[in-house]
Amino acid sequence: MKFILRMLISAGALFGVAYLSDQALLQVDNFWPAAVIAALVLAFANAVVKPIVKLFALPITILTLGLFGLIINAGMLYLVAAVVDGVHTTGLWQTVVASILISIVSSIGTKLVETDR
């Protein structure tokens, strides 16, 4: 149940960033099925692909004092846009900002709904 709730929060964050930025940061056609499928693909990319990319990018990440992690997050969003129909990126810096906003909103939303006390 927690997984489904987190995916819905992530999908809402994806769709919310696209909607509130008037499709300037990220373009999502509709909530169902594009944003929900994009949230699932993003969760898979963050769980499987991102650790491998972070391992190979470790020297650059160290040289940039961790700022390259933002580019890695944007890369995961680019991967989602390449795989999911109905999700499109608008540019590198817009995607970086969108990935930051999605991360913030998803983490806050997950913390608000968690009942582990």
Structure description:
The protein is mostly helical and 117 residues long. The protein has one domain. Helices cover 76% and strands 5% of the residues. It has a two-stranded antiparallel ribbon with strand order 1-2. Helix 1 packs across helix 2. The longest helix has 26 residues. The radius of gyration is 14 Å and the shape is globular. 24% of the residues are buried.
Give the termini distance in whole angstroms.
17 Å
Coarse shape:
globular
Instruction: Please tally the helical runs, counting DSSP H or I stretches of 4 or more residues.
Output: 5
Average pLDDT metric? 90
- Structural class, from secondary structure content? mainly alpha
Kindly estimate the percentage of residues that lie in beta strands according to DSSP.
Answer: 5-15%
- Number of separate domains: 1
Question: Quick one: how many beta strands?
Answer: 2
Oligomerization state: single chain
The percentage helix is over 70%
Strand order of the largest sheet: 1-2
Short recap of the structure:
The longest helix has 26 residues, at 31-56.
Sum up the structure in keywords.
mainly alpha, 117 residues
Task: Please write out the topology.
Layout: H1 2-20, E1 26-28, H2 31-56, H3 58-63, H4 68-83, E2 87-89, H5 92-113
Antiparallel strand pairs: 1-2
